[in-house]
Amino acid sequence: MNLRLKTLAATALAALALPALAEYPEKPVTIVVPFAAGGPTDKVARDLAEALRKPLGGTIVIENVGGAGGTLGATKVAKAAPDGYTILLHHVGMATSPSLYRQLQYKTLDDFEYLGMINEVPMTLIGRPTLPAANYAELAKWIDANKGKINLANAGLGSASHLCGLMFQQAIKVDMTTVPYKGTAPAMTDLLGGQVDIMCDQTTNTTSQIESGKVKAYAVSTLKHLTSPALAKLPTLDESGLKGFNVTIWHAMYAPKGTPKPVLDKLNAALKTALKDPEFIKREEALGAVVVTDARVNPAEHKKFVEAEITKLGTAIKAAGQYAD
Ligand code: ASP
Questions:
Q1: How many domains does the chain have?
Q2: Which terminal residue of the chain has fewer beta carbons within 10 Å of its beta carbon, N or C?
Q3: Which of 163, 201, 207, 325 to mutate to test the pocket of ligand 1 (most atoms within 8 A of CB)?
Q4: Host domain of residue 49
Q5: Could you say which residues of the chain have pLDDT below 70?
Q6: In whole angstroms, what is the distance from residue 35 CA to residue 74 CA?
Q7: Ligand 1: which atom is nearest the Cα of residue 163?
Q8: pLDDT tens per residue, range 126-148
Q9: C-beta of 298 in contact with ligand 1 (< 6 A)
Q10: Of the candidates 179, 184, 219, the residue with the CA atom closest to the CA atom of residue 93
Q11: Is 91 found in the same domain as 150?
Q12: Cut 0.85: pTM above it
């Protein structure tokens, strides 16, 4: 190649590569939430989008792609162009779905670039407002007296509410009829209306309903009591007789495999900055969630964590097999 051609080739290559890093994002970035609008995953995404806007420097759009326990939204992102404009915000479902779906349309560990974790969120066991039980002991009696007739709402196979409900059924050795929704926002509407009996859902969705007395609240899923005012009075399931019951879920972000490294670095840096936003932290804490520190907003660490969760939860799901839908 002569010098002129070499220079032309180099200029063309630079023109192809540079805009990707220098100008990203040059159009709106879509965060895919694999659950219905108004639910806990959606709430985290919308609050985080506020905090991300400045460090990322552009418009962020939330797209709700609910259904099949979050796997439809995850599939959409796995198959999207790896250009940094389609990002997934998912929860523990990333780690439960490999054990629950025979044919996932994506490979959890191979088809995504891991960006890092966002928060950890406890769950709460709640009931419809007309449920006659006022506390956990009364709920246990009511469940015993109504075996075979109880409806347990969740956000589909592999969702956080599914996982918590599965562990609960296994712990009390009672099989319930699970009613799947596209997210726990529509499930909450039906719970409030009395169409379903109970649900285990993230505090980020249940806190305001518990606070205003619109639902019956029975217990928290963690080993420790929660500190936020609306939830501090609730007992743990562990101390209510279900020894060792402990479910905490997490949210994290992912990009399609093959997204350029400079774009991933910018997204990761923006995520780290957003997670230090005092307004975001305040909102999360008020809802019982804990925002993670920098060490967990690390792609390699998060991937290792998801790998370990797939194994750990896979074992638990297998053990609870009889209660899996
Ligand atoms: N809380 C839901 C779940 O159970 C998801 C959602 O609606 O955000 O996984």
A1: 2
A2: N
A3: 201
A4: 28-121+250-320
A5: 1-22
A6: 10
A7: 4
A8: 999 999 999 999 999 999 999 99
A9: no
A10: 184
A11: no
A12: yes
